[in-house]
Amino acid sequence: MNRWEQLTGGGSGERYAARFAALAEQGQDVHGEARFCARLVPVGSRVLDAGCGTGRVLIQLARLGYEGAGVDQDASMLAVARRTAPELTWVRADLAEFDPAAEGLAPGFDLVVAAGNVFPLLAPGTESAVAATLARALRPGGLLVAGFGLDRDHLPVPPTLTLADYDAHCAAAGLTLADRFATWDADPYDGGGYAVSVHRR
User: Fold this and answer.
1) Which of the ends of the chain has fewer CB neighbours closer than 10 A, N or C?
2) What homologous superfamily is domain 3-200 in, according to CATH?
């Protein structure tokens, strides 16, 4: 069981979607991740939304002209994604074992995005395997983008993953740090409690 399942107990898709719908109705920007990714790769690029949840990021990217697929282990989250955008590809799989080819997906994504604290909420000890899986999904030169909290103020669980740890997992998977930001608005990283990291295969 991953830390997300421990935190939510499953069946969280409708609640999660409702929370973001309420934020959008209040005028808050809920598409920063998609906008960030769109600045990195051109329209028409193939994007894998890893830990896609209800599909918020991938659905917005599709609206902007990107192709791609979403993968998540939480069936309730994927049910919302499939209902909202049935024309897109949604895969239920453990990120540590995800094989695009086995799911009928062409290899060589231009970008993989892991938004929403995906890495800190993985099952402990699987971070390296997930980094390797996501690296293999990328084409040479492709980008892995991950944004996550580093302290208790930015995480719903006690922090266990440091940036040094994450960079080491990425390096072992053949990924090199290309840039790092403090927010999805690309503010410079200053050592704070949240980071958006861009690694290149």
Assistant:
1) N
2) Vaccinia Virus protein VP39 (3.40.50.150)
Question: Coil, strand, or helix at residue 152?
Answer: helix
pTM to 2 decimal places: 0.89
Specify the DSSP class assigned to residue 188: B
Please count the CA atoms within 13 angstroms of the CA of 84 that sit on its side-chain side: 23
Report the distance separating Cα 188 and Cα 117, nearest Å.
19
d(CA 136, CA 46): 14
Rounded Cα gap, residues 50 and 119, in angstroms: 10
Per residue in 50-102, pLDDT (tens digit) is 999 999 999 999 999 999 999 999 999 999 999 999 999 999 999 999 999 99
Residue where the block lists tokens 């193939």 = 46
Domain ranges in the chain are: 3-200
User: What are the start-end ranges of the H helices in the chain?
Assistant: 3-8, 13-25, 32-40, 56-63, 75-84, 127-137, 163-172
- Cα of first residue to Cα of last residue in the chain, in angstroms, is 29
Q: Within its chain, how far is the Cα of 154 from the centroid?
A: 16
Provide the pLDDT for residue 16. Answer: 59
* Beta-bridge partner residues of 17: none
Report d(CA 20, CA 185) in Å as an integer: 18
Contact 30, 151 (CB under 8 A): no
Whole-angstrom CA distances from 169 to 48, 69, 117 are 19, 23, 16
